[in-house]
Amino acid sequence: MKLLAKPEDNGQNSRRSHTSRNLYCGDCWNVLRTSKPGSVDFIYIDPPYYTKREFLSQGRKESTRRMPLHFDDRWNGGHVEYLRFLALRVQLMHSVLRPEGVLLVHLDWHIVHYVKVMLDQIFGAHGLINELIWYYQTGGASRRHFSRKHDTILVYGRGDRHYFNAAVVAMPRSPKALHRARWPKGARISVNHTHKNPDDVIAIPALNPMAAERTGFPTQKPLALLELLISAFCPPQGVVGDYFCGSGTTLVAARRLGRAYTGCDISPAAMQLTRSRLRDV
Description:
The protein has 8 helices and 13 strands. By secondary structure, the chain is an alpha/beta fold. It has a 9-stranded mixed β-sheet with strand order 1-2-13-12-3-6-8-7-11, with helices on both faces. It has a two-stranded antiparallel sheet with strand order 4-5. Strands 9-10 form a two-stranded antiparallel sheet.
């Protein structure tokens, strides 16, 4: 485990160090093992998806163009070995979370059903807050099945209470809905209820190949998605953790939103890319 960026501290003995920023290169198991229990408010992980593939690409930024961006999603022991690997790390994430903290695990159809059962065992079935669907239109079509156009984000809370800011993610109601509200008969909402909570299907577009924020890292997620999730589930002075940070999107979103953060990835190329993106914020 290698600390790439020393934490910054405002020198106050407060509940949180709002300016704390830590980057580690290494296995997140080592990072989590030595982390302070109950110190993180929001953890998002985008771990390997059990695709049984090896991913290799080149960075698009000048600082990472000559360094291959690589991760191996092949598992000699099959799904049993994958689940053992992930469970050991999620158990440590559970202990690192504050009592009101939340864990978000981003996966797709390959293994999400097994991981949900695993999370029920660690957090308790009552810990499930949301099963979010991230819907997008990119990706291939098939003549053998319906096109696979969504990922699943499982949201679990450590305790009975968790932070959720409905106001920052509220969506304007349609003119048609507000027009109906003016008629007292049959109206389900007040005319003053101009906004509503988004539902659990998030239709933020995936990054297209020419998107300005694209780094070249395989499986990179859009900033808009992470900013939405952090705004909803992490308090303004909270601490964000991403222990499979890849291209660093979670940490960039946290920095843009003024949250403290801790990031980790086993790939030196991924951490170099993350540092480069954070410098540009």
